Amino acid sequence: MDLPEGRMALTVTGRKELAKDICEFTLARDDGAVLPSFTAGAHITVETPGGAMRRYSLLNDGSAPTSYVIAVKREANSRGGSASMHADVREGTVLNVDPPENEFELVEAPKYLLIAGGIGITPILSMARHLSAEGKAFRLIYCTRTPEETAYLDEVSSFPTATVHHDNGDIDDFYDFWDHFEKPGAEHVYCCGPAPLMEEIKALSGHWTEGRVHFEDFAGVDVVREDDVPFTVTIASTGREIEVPADRSILEALRDAGEKTVSSCESGTCGTCKCRLIEGEADHRDLVLMDEEKDDYIMICVSRAKSGDLVVDL
Ligand code: FES
User: Fold this and answer.
1) How far apart are the first and last CA of the chain?
2) Segments in the chain below pLDDT 50
3) Partner of 36 for a Cys bridge, out of 2, 99, 166, 247, CB 3.0 to 4.6 A?
4) How many CB atoms lie within 10 A of CB 160?
5) Could you tell me the domains of the chain?
6) Ligand 1 mean position, distance from CA 218 (Å)
7) Which residues line ligand 1 (CB under 6 A)?
């Protein structure tokens, strides 16, 4: 089957267990040819064997890469994304991959503060390697629960200005960032991690100049939850009714039924899958729609019906 323009079929040439529930994958062309280049903070979009499109940050040097290196954490409630990467991807597996994009680019600054939580270390480590190689000043703070759950622990610890903090899941032992934010400095801040960490940094940096604190947040949304129930989506233009099972998103159900859909992040953060909501009450789970849009639009990669069924326009 022909791939959409730009999409590449890459072979997994390496798989390495990094920490509890975290695996590193290396992807390359069969002929070893150079792949599209990228800069620190970039990601690729991978079609997992389970059929989901997922974004993963790139870890290796992107100037003339012959491989792409990503790390994937198996999320507890994942069904087609990270779970499929862990269960179904081995050396030799071929994956469809969209070329690198970078919405988390380093800007020129006198110094940098890099903050990572959990698997959010992936773009942050790529930045730290780049800044270190360039001899630029940076501070890195890496927060995880335990050493066993910490990918790239030795490498991060080897940076002279890095702090690794384990909180053992105890809210009273969370890292206190206030000293870094109390007085706005000259640095640019880059933060990637779970939603509570990014919300805290947003709150602490409210008095900083706009554009000085940067976030990468495509990892934060549960697409399907344990207590989700099935419902029906009707496509307004054709009247076709499609069942959305409890363990599939609207987007996946439409795709399974052969409907043409567009998507990118599939985690409710990019806005690509936005559809008109014609009838029904949505359970909005995205991070994109403004409150005033929520009666009329729905992000079908993550949101569902609150009760009853939905009518949408694709
Ligand atoms: S695909 Fe990105 S918000 Fe739905």
Assistant:
1) 24
2) 220
3) 99
4) 8
5) 8-101 (2.40.30.10), 112-216 (3.40.50.80), 231-313 (3.10.20.30)
6) 9
7) 263-266, 268-273, 286, 288, 299, 301
